[in-house]
Design brief:
The protein is of the alpha/beta class. About 40% of the residues lie in helices and about 20% in strands. It has 11 helices and 9 strands. α6 (about 125-140) packs across α7 and α9 (about 200-215) runs antiparallel to α10 (about 220-230). Bound molecules: adenosine monophosphate.
Amino acid sequence: MQIITAIEDMQALSSRLLSEKKNIGLVPTMGALHEGHLGLVRRSKDENDFTVVSIFVNPSQFGPNEDFNEYPRDTEGDLDKLSPCKVDAVFIPGADEMYPEGFSTSINIGNIGTILCGASRPGHFNGVATVVAKLFNIVMPGRAYFGQKDFQQTVVIGKLVRELDFGVDIVVCPTVRGPDGLAMSSRNGYLSDEERKAAPILYKALKFGEELIVSNGIVNAVLIKEEMRKLIHTEPLAAADYVEIVTLGRLEGVEKIELPVAICIAVKIGKTRLIDNIVVEKKQVEDVR
Ligand code: AMP
């Protein structure tokens, strides 16, 4: 497993691979790796000749009052997890390598980046789009792998690739969850024991919303969102940031449910903000009838 820290070295390696007609798969991460990340890695290994995992805690996607300094960093542990997966190369640039003195370019992804998570994290998705664009230019992958866990991020990246003609296939992989339904996240490590017990309320609320649509046939989105909020707030440590039901492509809020839709939520458990979502498909309703 090659460890690469310089942009120049990564580009030289990728250029060589492309000249040998090798397919490159890229899995961008911020490290503190868990099974959710490893699912993306395995998929890339299956589908490409050469898999690159990037580890970069991207400062430009954190707001001034967010957890950039506290964000978990464990490069040794990450490499120990990647090595048995037979990852070909790990790209770990420093912040000065990615954003040298005087760096000022930023991609503005537009309104899609100001709704849902973007409303409480201004600038976050522009930071994500900018770093992913850089990673695409550095690693030159044919495919890049993202988790459905960050649903809005997948839509933002899809738009980035289409509108700036990156020619990278975006592969969205299912959310990996613990046995109690909690989506794996590097931020779960912030939770106290008591908060960890409360955190599965996110998945419970999503499944409840899904049930109201699929089994109860409710089409009034306002009602479903209200019921989900009520359920979330039965958990004293939980405070809903948003509960939204949106279209898949543009993330537009719907009033009347017409499937497919995504139910997207952000909930604070104590001080930790967690996000999760599920997609409800037309087929699920047809299967019930
Ligand atoms: P992060 O390191 O949190 O920026 O995540 C890197 C990639 O892993 C993103 O595409 C995430 O959506 C994905 N990811 C994180 N958690 C999960 C999970 N529980 N299941 C699937 N993908 C995930």
